[in-house]
Amino acid sequence: MPSWIDTHCHLDAAEFAGENAAVRARATAAGVALCVIPAVGVPNFDAVRVLAHEGGDAYALGIHPLCTGSAADGDLALLDAALTAHRADPRLVAVGEIGLDYFVPGLDPARQEHFYREQLLLARKHALPVLLHVRRSADKLLKHLRRIRVAGIAHAFNGSDQQAHEFIKLGFKLGFGGTVTFDSALQIRRLATELPLSALVMETDSPDIPPHWIYRTAGERQAGLPQGRNEPGELPRIATVLAELRGMEPQELATVTTRNAVQALPRLAALLAA
Predict the structure, then answer these.
(1) Domain 4-273 is of which CATH architecture?
(2) What is the mean pLDDT of the chain?
């Protein structure tokens, strides 16, 4: 059975409350060797760390752009303190989830950018890669990355060819997940198929971005069916779709994307070897 790394899954989300162990067990049975669990703000720093240790996984600490409105100015100092306190923890593999979101209305762009820039500086200070949230914001993210050089993963990538290659030039891997299972996702499917294999990593973004076999349409939701919940155990099936699109065997894709994930998040190597 191929062995996979889910480079981005929110196992601490409310959707998994009380089921974390069962969800992780299903992922293990499906062949997911490691999950990377990013924080979204100071309130869940402890939760992602505890889950990573309980499940034999990895975690990241950061402040999500959608949480910058509710974050206190002092949260950046708390992040710095947490990164310092856990610097020797081999399961702390990145600063994240950080970035910019220009899709959701009502967010302060300047505040988002301030938190993003300061967290890039913290990543550089602590010699850690980053997990980037990229939504209608690729060019602005790239502008700061050219000034503050860190590497990592641009998760759930959905930008243009040119933006993809700019991230790659800066040392980033690009995360692909459930969206590639939709026939209508022409641009993302094309990117996932045509970009260099060395640039790709796999993710689920659980409980979000469900693959097509879980996704509920607006009509189905209006009829009372709940939106399907994604989980890391779906990753191998999602990856098999991508392997078919690229005309390769799932085992080969597993081997390459695992190697790519370790290149992006070097601390994963010791966890895989343990």
Answers:
(1) Alpha-Beta Barrel (3.20)
(2) 96
